[in-house]
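Quick board copy: two proteins, each given as sequence then tokens.
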Amino acid sequence: MNPQESDLQSLRALVRDLADRVERLERRIEAEGFAAEPVLRREAQPSPSPPPTPQPVAHPLPVLPSPPVAIPSIPAPQFAVEPPEIGLESRIGSHWLNRIGILAVLVGVSYFLKFAFDNNWIGPAGRVSIGLLAGIAVIVWSESFRTRGYNVFSYSLKAVGVGVLYLSLWAAFQMYGLIPSAVAFLAMVIVTGSTATLAIKQDAAILAAIALTGGFATPLLLSTGENREMQLFSYVALLSAASVALVVFKPWRRLLILSYAGTLVLYIAWYSEYYRRHEFATTFAFATIFFVIFAVAPLIAKAPEGKISLPYLWGILTFINTGVYFLEAYAMIEEIDKLAMAWFALALAAVHIGLSRIIGRREPASSEALRLLHLALAVALITIAIPIRLDGYWITVGWLVEAGVLLWVADRIGSGFLHYLAAVALALGVVRLLAFDDFTVDTLLLNSRMATYVLAMAVLALLAWFSVEREGEFDRQLAACAVLALNALALVGLGREIGDYYGRQIPAAPRGVRSWSAALAAGRHRLLIAEYFSYSALFMAYGALLMAIGFWRKSAFVRWQALFLMAATIVKVFLYDVSQLDRGYRILSFMILGVLLLAVSFVYQKDWLKLSTPQAREGGGRS
């Protein structure tokens, strides 16, 4: 049942009960000889005559106790007042026809003005004056729409009006030469400032965007083809600083992207046309000023109430700002001093580390991603500085040392992010070591190549150690990959030592001799056989070492690597050594492999690690 119907029935029952009580009261009064009218006097319409004086009553009216009756409260029905839906006809009539009408009027006026200009009805001064008055009139007219709630349409009209003002001033200077450049520039600055003031007063971000667009377009509109670096970049720096100051008080952070884009466009346009090496100091100083302005913007910008900052917006701005600044500096510094460019990269990395520490003291929920981005940029800059400063395999050494330092710092401060960045730097070093580095060695083992391999294996071991300590699933997988890479790198490094050793022993064919002599061919064949046997011996020895480490550390992961290496050795001995090696090396290969396999099998049968179940051990003993 509806609650309102239930309450209505309760009210009706209450009225009926009250009516019964009144009726019983009247009957009782009549039975005792009293008149009922003075007691139950009904209200009549107000009369100008004074009310009659009541007659004295001989017997007082008895007071009848009446039990309190709980009157149920009937909630007033709530009705949602929905705004009237605007139909398609009303929308077309009130919105679209209005806009089309405005557009038609503007097009008609523009055709009329063009016709008047073509026929010289209006001179240059009149044309500019009409443009200025029309722009101001459109801006003033737009306020009438804003006061009636048509904000979007009002701002659109303001954009048209401001654009007309800029174009009129451009025509007055560029086309007709009516005013000097200083006056035109001052007038455009006044238009920009007025639009920005209007944006702040009306709390309209779109007007601020229009003001910034006009402000950055001013140097392009007033360009005369002359190199005025100081004036141009001073103006751009002030405009950029003003945009940052604007977002300090207003949560219009997306304006920084527009401001940075305008700054970058003007910088590139000037640099590609006018930069010369003797202007390095001024240009680099302004590039640094631009970088600093947009680097501190995320630290001081106002966030909307109830919202956290937009990490993707700050991330995009920070990444592009750093990348562009580094490329700008590289283009100017690298041709002057390569060493200075490396130091610049390190200094910029230090700046990002400092910014990450500043951001780390703020709210971690809103700024943690930005802090990590600054750390990543610092590591990337250090990584880039190494190949700029160093050459050859020293680049690999630099990346490996960087990875080791990052691993140590990450462990000290408990930063997983730096730990993974260290893994990336280590991967770069290993890939370069295997694929790009070219060593010239003259001694076995004690050479720069083997030292670099040992350094890489040491850092891989450090990565595995710290990853295991982190006790995460991904970290355990990373530790396993590091151990596998360490063993593979050891085999590759030792294999290259073997190849270079025998390569130095094999005699070269005399100059001018097209074919090998029998003696030289026989000597070369013996050295090749010894080299092939050395590879087999290396696999056997390394497999035995891994197996011993696996039993010592009770690590199944290491033992499985040893078994895999032994399996590869078995395949090589039985399929390759049988057909390629001489009888002596063939016998030696099989004897060493057999003894190694028997020893490993004996260790497994002894079950020192208790790998088998009790039932399996008893069954094995009976067999």
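And the next:
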Amino acid sequence: MKFKIRFIPFLIEIISFVIFLIILLNHTALLANPSKLYSTSIAHRLQTDALLHGHLSLSPRPFGYLMDYDWIGGHGLQQNWGLGVPLLRLPFEWTSVQLGAGPFPDRLILLFYLILTIAVLNITLRSVMKTFCVGLSSGIRFVIRWYFMAWIFFSQAMGGLIQKKINVYNETVLYGCLYVYVLICLLWIYIKRPNNRFYYILCLLSGLAWLIRPTLIFYGFPTFLIASIFSYKDKRSSRLIIMGIICFCIGVAIELWANYLRFGSMLDFGCPESGSVLVNYSARFDSTFSFYKIGILNVFKELLGDLFFLHPWQYHAVRLRNQMGNPFNIIHLIILVAGLILYGFFLAFHFLKQINFQRLIGVNFGLIYLSLVWGLITFGLLFSFYAIISVVSFRYLVEFSEALNVIFIALVLLTFSCLRIYFRRKESLISLFVFLGLFCCYANHKFFKFDQQSIKKRYQEQSTDKNGIKRRIREFNQGILQRPDLPERSYCGQSYSTAGLRYQYLGWDIYKDCSVSATTSAILPSEKCVTLNYTVRNIHEIPDVQVKRDLMYLKLIETNFNNIKGSSQVQMTQSFCSDAQITDSLALYSIGWVNRDQLNKVRGGIAPVKLNWLTVAQQSLNR
């Protein structure tokens, strides 16, 4: 009889889990075509294969260069999406290699971690709601818990990642979101049941968060900080906290050391060669979206409009805005404001000592309070970061969803905790539950407006079968094997594919009379100096040229110019040199052509400059 009583709720949970997963997958492109389970984006797969062979770089040479990849002399060819996802893929690929089964399907790996996150989050919420919803029956708690799950996974933000596109860009952000949800679950478990070993694991995982994406440190650091403060308030030993700090620092040190080995600098997460003029210029030289020039109010207004509205306050400054809508709506803004107001009341009454919150809502006030603090801190850190960078996209803004969802859960749990004390009748709780249900459906209704044919069409472009993925890897390896001698001098008539480099002369438009964009890049033999010869329309349009060899700025040591046709055109010859150590036989030379007060030329893409030729040579800086 006892077995039957325990088995029935377990069976209901399993059935609910399966139904939830089926509905979720039906609304996404994850398994739209079961015969094509491999992603056409091979960056994570190439990095996983490199790790299996014991090295970080995809190749020691730049040949085989792909868009959004990075090559720095002496550090090899790198992908720019971090080591976190390849490390998560590593056990599956290693097992598949050992069994001789070939490449492991990318979609199945992602599906495994999606299911794992849903299970961990569901189990954790079940444990948390047993504490805060004592007055409710198990059935009502069950429904509310699945409402939380629907609120998270059927949201506009999550739908934007997995409903239409699952490429390397969205996939990396999705892995990051899943990681953060597991992290907050571990924090909740630790606050409910403190355990020394669990604290060490939590601190280590918090430090490792930015292996997936650099911005996840804004979730990892608050998680570590709140866990440490809780341990201190719980009067746990100082030795425990010191060991936690060491574990967190180990995680951070791993990422910093990996950055140094991959890109030559601990704080460099890669400057990819992109098809965007603005991204190339901002990554290699100056940011085109200046926080100080635009003003704090305009910057914050623009980001606020991008998050919750349809971009009503975009500033006129040049910025790459790659958005397909807003990931949140006015309901989420109300949640954020309610969280801020509640936290303000907590602080005010704490200092005035007017209300004993511990008595008001029960002994687990710490979990609600710390969850609220966690959500507000992480939201504030992300908001400050994305307000000042020169690139903003829908997938970037999705990272705010974890903070907003935790604030929402904290507010609901606080409400039920108060009702448990002041209202004994279940009818009032059920009424509140119905209101919250309508609230959830209204706030998340856009996710269910999907076009199944559109999903299948896009999926065909982003997925392939085993033969297709083997062909893509073979093409990449063939590109690496091409190792021709690169010329020391390059002329404007040469094509992008000269010397076997797919993105050679990026920004050098040979079809428009060799005009150049804000940034021109080329891989050439590594020498002390580079000389540029270019033509501008008139003396007033001469750009402020900047040159980099890999990550090092070269110093301007000589300038010569003469008029070609009276005052209509000016031909410039400039030499840039450096005595800095040369670490490799080849170097990536990046040339910035835009004056700081002429950033409007970045918007048009092409500056009024015709690059005639460039050359590198072994010369002395003090010649």
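Board note added afterward: Residues 450-455 have pLDDT under 50 and may be disordered.
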